[in-house]
Amino acid sequence: GHKRMKNVLKAWIASHTNLVYWQGLDSLCAPFVYLNFNNEALAYASLSAFIPKYLNNFFLKDNSLIINEYLAVFSHLIAFHHPDLSNRLETIGFIPDLYAIPWFLTVFAHVFPLNKIFHLWDMLLLGGSSFPLCIGVAILTQLKALLLKADFNECILLFSELPEIDIERCVRDSIDIFASTPRSCTYREHASDLTNYQINNDLV
């Protein structure tokens, strides 16, 4: 398995010369290798299609502009859906830079086990490039009661060992957040053009 993943990653890096390996790319690759264990070419093709849609330019050598914009939009989304939580986290200085970068850089593959990732990504693939942001807000929704009472150090501890997240609820909440968020709230200058997907009304 490790050799197959290494082959897929080497092929991806070799064919995307403007991009570089960032820590977490192996976590992002793992679901595709697992699902296409005997077909490295398909695993590579899946990874190559996934990254431009959800992680456009995240793997540039200098990705600071892209990451900063993404986290700024995430902060706006938290404030839009949970102003009390946003205010609390801002007051204690617990900003998304401290916990959310591994979430978004790996589209949560670094956070959740594979069985949960498959369930989450099944829904993700129906949504636009902003859907990972909605998943992030959905995770905070589940942790909200704890976070509102926590100080800075307790927040750091909480996110270093993330409590059990109900993935079914996370998916449902993500859909609701996606559906109730004005598009202007999730606009990103650095987003891919491959973003104009809407979740089917049957799912909302």
From TrEMBL:
It comes from the Eukaryota. The chain crosses the membrane at residues 92-112, 118-140. Pfam families: RabGAP-TBC. The keyword Iron-sulfur does not apply. InterPro entries: Rab-GAP-TBC_dom (IPR000195), Rab-GAP_TBC_sf (IPR035969), Rab_GAP_TBC_domain (IPR050302). One of its GO terms (molecular function) is small GTPase binding. Keywords: Membrane, Transmembrane, Transmembrane helix. The keyword Membrane applies. Residues 1-128 form the Rab-GAP TBC domain. This is Rab-GAP TBC domain-containing protein.
